[in-house]
Amino acid sequence: MRGCAASKDLKEPRAHDAIVIEFPGGRLNKMCPNVGAARPSAFWIEGWADVPGYFWLSGSYWVQAGQVRNEDRIFVKFAQTGVQTVKIYSAESPVLIDAIWLSVGQKTRPADGQRGPEVERK
To answer: Running DSSP on this structure, what letter comes out for residue 120?
Structure first.
């Protein structure tokens, strides 16, 4: 997801930079340590407050000293093909999300300034 923390709380910015993304009908390759068995198809994603502006972040990346680091990737597998539902919950708001990128073949994180492919809205 490409997003940014929008809080003006400079005392505790990390208290305002998390969302939970859930894939009903999907299965993640590993359980989220923050959400756990309560929601096995959901993952807690945080870290937007550590870098100014918009950048790509997912459950497979974390931020340390202002640098986004690549750790074990998180994958979701769906039980069937076709239209899927993705739910996003505000865990520590406000966070602004301007793009979600799902790919069956891409194995690298997009560049921070890169936007997702434009989709025709019907």
So the answer is: -
